[in-house]
Design a protein that fits this description.
Blueprint (H helix, E strand, L loop, with lengths): L3 H14 L7 E4 L20 E7 L2 E6 L3 E5 L4 E7 L14 E6 L3 E7 L7 E5 L6 H4 L12 H8 L6 H5 L10 H11 L12 H22 L7 H8 L18 E2 L8 E2 L1 H4 L8
Antiparallel strand pairs: 1-6, 2-3, 3-4, 4-8, 5-7, 6-7, 9-10
Organism: Labedella populi
Pfam family, one: H2TH
Catalytic activity: Hydrolysis of DNA containing ring-opened 7-methylguanine residues, releasing 2,6-diamino-4-hydroxy-5-(N-methyl)formamidopyrimidine
Length: 278
């Protein structure tokens, strides 16, 4: 799943490559992806891209007319190709293309590699009015995200901490991988209810959110889109590393029970050395 550090990097790439280009053609390959059936992609034709904005795990391509909201969902992504800079991920093993936007000398293709379609496209006049954007919670790296804001999110919530970190209405842009990394850095168990955290643990959680995401944003900033997934995987301390040694203590990283191998933790650091019961 693309998360805010990768989507932010993609947004920066598109600002450099797409802004100022005029849309010549559009091709909607998978019609289920279009969420605004009364606003077809052809409304973008002959429009010039004027900016790219990120909201959590969503990107908005603004033009001198309507905007295109791309909600990447579970496995969506984008491929770029032009005469001088071709995205090497657009090969025979590339995920299915959902839609193509053609410029004079370049193409932006949005894809979805999931078992079920999760990517969504919307042609809108004001992206901030779309429910997926309007309901987003605080951006964890914004100045508005303070320890007091986190307290308001956590205190009294009888929801497992890992799930709460991924709740987009509370914190925008954190997904499965970075929630694992944040909890590892904070030395907190993934399945504890948020209401159980004391003040010191909440302070550790806040610091870990800022540190893990801040480091990831900086590290991904200039990585080409085709290399972002590999860069993200390589940077993980525990996520996706079940059976491997914890980089801090050498103990064995385990799968979070019930996650079907999609989430991981270190028992030594996060559950006082006792593995979570299956």
């Amino acid at each position: 799943m693309p998360e805010s550090p990768e989507v932010d990097s993609l947004g920066g790439f598109l600002r450099s490559h797409a802004v100022g280009r005029r849309v010549r053609t559009v091709d909607l390959v998978e019609f289920r992806a279009l969420k605004t059936r009364d606003r077809p992609l052809r409304e973008l034709v002959a429009r010039t891209v004027s900016g790219v904005r990120r909201f959590g795990k969503h990107l908005v391509l603004d033009t001198d007319g309507p905007s295109l909201l791309v909600s990447f969902g579970r496995a969506g992504w984008a491929l770029w190709s032009d005469g001088s800079d071709r995205d090497e991920s657009a090969g025979p093993d590339a995920p299915p293309v959902i839609a193509r936007i053609g410029f004079d000398d370049a193409e932006l293709a949005v894809t979805d590699a999931g078992d079920w379609l999760s990517l969504g496209l919307s042609v809108v006049d004001d992206a901030t009015m779309v429910p997926a954007i309007a309901k987003l919670g605080a951006d964890p790296l914004s100045d508005a995200f303070t320890p007091e804001v986190l307290e308001g999110i956590v205190v009294g919530r009888r929801k497992r901490l890992k799930a709460l970190l991924q709740e987009q209405e509370s914190l925008a842009g954190i997904g499965n991988a970075y929630s694992d990394e944040i909890l590892f850095a904070a030395r907190l168990p993934p399945l504890v209810q948020a209401v159980a955290l004391d003040e010191e643990e909440r302070e550790r959680l806040y610091a870990a959110i800022r540190e893990v995401l801040g480091t990831a944003f900086e590290a991904r900033r200039d990585v080409p889109p085709a290399e972002l997934k590999a860069a993200k995987v390589a940077a993980m301390a525990v996520h996706g590393r079940a059976g491997e040694a914890c980089p801090d203590c050498g103990g064995t990283v385990l799968d979070v029970p019930g996650s079907k191998g999609t989430a991981q933790y270190c028992p030594e650091h996060q559950t006082r050395g006792v593995p979570l019961p299956e």
